[in-house]
Structures are given as structure tokens and as C-alpha cells.
Amino acid sequence: MERRAGRGRSTGITSTAGLWLVLAIALPSCGGADPEASEEPASAPAMHGAWSPDDLALLRRLTPLPPVPADPTNRVADDDGAAHYGRWLFFDARLSGNGEVSCATCHDPAHGFADPRALALGAGLGERHAPTLLNAAHQRWLGWGGRADSLWMQALGPLENPVEMAGSREAIARLVREDPELAAAHLEVFGALPADDTALFVEVGKALAAYERLLVRGDSRFDRFAAALLGQAGGDPEALDGEEQEGLRLFLGRGRCTLCHLGPTLSDLEFHNNALPPHPEGSRDDPGRYRGGQLVKESPFNAAGPHSDATDGAAARRVGALVISSETFGEFRTPGLRNLKGREPFGHQGQFEDLAAVLAFYNTLEGQDLRSHHQEQLLRPLGLAPGELAALEAFLLALEGTPLAPGLMAPPGSPRP
């Protein structure tokens, strides 16, 4: 598990409208040999001569996965006690309206903190797939449409959404005050039990976020292979086999996947409309970023709002500068590509049953919903041979990070730190 510094601890740590955009953009690659190849030791990867200076420059922007960024809007973001309390809350179905749905219902730890169902099923049937929470602390915007600008704001939404957990802040506040263990845990973390229901509700969200900040998986075989290519410490030139290396070359070169999947999470953290075919039970008119942007700007729980612990910080300025126009209708967040194994289905509506189905779609673009708004203009078929598609899939599956500590996968014995 990745380690990060925090207050009193060292800790570790989006299906896919934006997920696959760049797999479908086939621009020419630069090619050419690495001028430093002759200086590499004999144990260097057998295909090292295929890596151009441009390839190596891109690799430096993809790896390693750094520590999660600080969240000044949440004063307990890196507090051990808050994360422990939040872990209990994550699995506590009493936060829902019917007492049967917890955060873990749709963000299943055994399924990569995502949902094995195409459309989330909580108190009711949702219109979107529940995305993974792994590495979510690295995102600027949360949710497929970016309806939240922090993990704690995101955590509050499902609690009161009638088709997700269908709870209420009043009922949740009452539960915390009346349950002796919850009340004691809350007091230990926050120092008081607010009399105001909304203030207490927000603190529940901030404790949940402290736990979710630990759900980080980095240090994949790809990272170790890239470190060897870049001459960095901890590299392993044998970490990727020949097929996986071929897939990486496609990812960096002919596929130009880094046009959108650039950055250490392998995402640009932005929004795109790829005109994906809708799920049979999903909406064809999901506004995506258009509505998500409105929600985050209007919410009193955003980074500039009265419940933020840094109302004049960078996140507050970012939400203040956010511009939403009709061109954002139908856009969805580009998910990161790390830790895909065992997380099927994919797509913002779970349209694709597995990675092979995703790649097959982008290889031809057959089935696009061309009535969708403002599609990506550079999108075109990959046109890869079957062996190349298999190599690309093999590389994507080599992005699995170090497993989480087992204790993060289940509730603690008590909510008290």
C-alpha cells in the first residue's frame, strides 16, 4: 500500500465515458530509438530500443502515483481517528432511510470499491454505474458529472439521494447523538456534537472522506517497468512481459491515449462526450457535466461554502471559476485507468461487460449514439488487429497497484478510534 504523511500517521491509498476517449484517437507516433539506449545495463528490457525520447517524456508524466493531495477544506482529512470513524460509517447501513443500504453496497470492497452491477441499485435503481473509490482522492471533481469538488461533499450526496441511500441529515444526526458508541467516536474526532443537524451531517461526510483518502493503490508493475526505463530507483526491467510492453507502446504511440489519459492516475481529470451507446435501462439524455457543474456551484457544501474549512483556498477559487455551457451537456469525467482488473462492467452506465468489449467498441466505433450532444471531434476508430487489441488489454491489466491493507476492506470492531 502506498504510504503518505498525515496528521499523526503514515497511510496509503472513473464506467467510462471519458475512460476510453484516447484509445480511439489514432494520431501518428514519433517513433525512433532512445539515444541513451546503448548506456543501459544488460538487464534492460529487450524492447528498450523501441522507446523514443517522446515516449520517455510521456512516461515521466504517468508515473509514479504521488501521495494524495492535501484537502484543506476538511480539517480532519488526514486524522487517524477520523479515518477509523469514517471506516465504520462507510459500512453502517443505519445511515440509509431503510436501514439496509450502506456506502459499501454500491462501492463493494471486494469489487474494487465499485459495483458489479451496470446501474447502481440502492434504495432504488440509479441511472449510472457506481464508479470505483480507489484513488478517488486524486480527483479534482467527483462523480461522473463532477457534482462534487471534494470527497466529503461527494459522500454527502448519496446519503440523501432518494435512489441511493434515501436517508436524511436529520435522521443521521439523531442516530449519531443517540447511539452511545457513535456519539463517543464523534466527540473524540471532532471535539463536540453540533446542535445543528446540518453541521453534524457535514462532519459525518468529512469522516467518511478521511477513510476514503486511504483507498489508494499505486506501485503497479507498469510503474516499476517505467522506473527501469527512466533510470529511477526501484525499477524492474522485467516487470512487463513482451505483450504488455507492446500494449504500452500502442498506448503511448498509435493510440495516442495520453491525449486524455495523461497524468499519474492515467486521466486528464476532465470531461468528454464520446457518444457511448446507452445501457438498455439507462438514459439517452443524461446531461452529465452540464448538470454536475450546476450542482457543485449551487451547493452549500462546495469548497467555497460555509461548511468548508478553507473557503478562500485553491479549491474554492476553482469552483468559483467554473463555467458551465451547453457544450458540456453529455460530457463525463475521464476515469483513471489504474486497478481495472476485476472491476467490470465499464462505462458511466456500465455499458461494457469487460475491457475487451470496451476496446472492441473503440476499434470500430460501431453503435455510437450520434444524437448525443457535442461529441469529441477527434474520435475515430482505432483499427487495430486482434493481436494489438489483446496487447493493449494486457497492458491495461498491468496497471494493478499494491493491494490495500486487509483492515481497510471491512468495518472496525467499534466506531471509536
List the helices and strands and how they pair.
Blueprint: E1 4-6, E2 9-11, H1 53-62, H2 80-90, H3 103-106, H4 151-160, H5 169-178, H6 180-190, H7 197-212, H8 221-229, H9 242-252, E3 271-272, H10 289-298, H11 314-321, E4 332-333, H12 355-364, H13 386-396
Antiparallel strand pairs: 1-2, 3-4
Helix pairs in contact: 2-7, 4-7, 5-6, 5-7, 9-13
Q: Any overview of this molecule?
A:
By secondary structure, this protein is mainly α. The protein has a domain at 4-68 and 217-281 and 340-399: Cytochrome Bc1 Complex, Chain D, domain 2 (Orthogonal Bundle). It has 13 helices and 4 strands. Strands 1-2 form a two-stranded antiparallel sheet. Strands 3-4 form a two-stranded antiparallel ribbon. Strand 1 (4-6) and strand 2 (9-11) form a beta hairpin. Helix 5 packs across helix 6. It is globular, with a radius of gyration of 22 Å. It starts with a strand and ends in a 21-residue tail after the last helix. The model is unreliable at 1-48 (pLDDT under 50).
Brief description of this entry?
By secondary structure, the protein is mainly alpha-helical.
Q: Which strands sit side by side, in order, in the main sheet? A: 1-2
Beta-strand share of residues: under 5%
Structural class: mainly alpha
What's the story with the biggest beta sheet? 2 strands, antiparallel
* Integer-rounded radius of gyration: 22 Å
Q: Number of DSSP strands?
A: 4
What is the string of SSEs from the N terminus onward? EEHHHHHHHHHEHHEHH
User: Count of DSSP helices?
Assistant: 13
The CATH superfamily of the domain at 4-68 and 217-281 and 340-399 is known as Cytochrome c-like domain
